[in-house]
Model the fold of this input.
Amino acid sequence: IVTGHDKPEYQRSAVVPLRWGAPRILCLDRGLFQVLGEDLRNEAFRMARLWRYEFDPTTDLVISPFRPEASFIGVNNQVRDRVVAGLSKRLDFVKISPGGNMEKLAKMAEKAGRTVSLF
Done:
């Protein structure tokens, strides 16, 4: 599941499946129209346009907990992360800041009986 677009790690996780012809699940922190355009055909990641120019609904799934036309506001990434955690059977973290949103989600996942790992 790819959840961000503004960091190299997120961008890489969005592009690698395209190189392998594998499907992606993108969970957005804004509305579908804001990312995919009004016709829902824009590739969500600029770097991915090396492999294809348009979003492919036959291989990718995009979800958003926000209205289709909604822009980003400050708490959207926390809402998006909670959706991803709620859909996941297993959560793997590289870094968790004490008292942060990821720590809260990790505790919620453990309480729900999901596997949580910190690398």
The two ends are 18 Å apart (CA to CA). The chain has two domains: 1-87, 88-119.
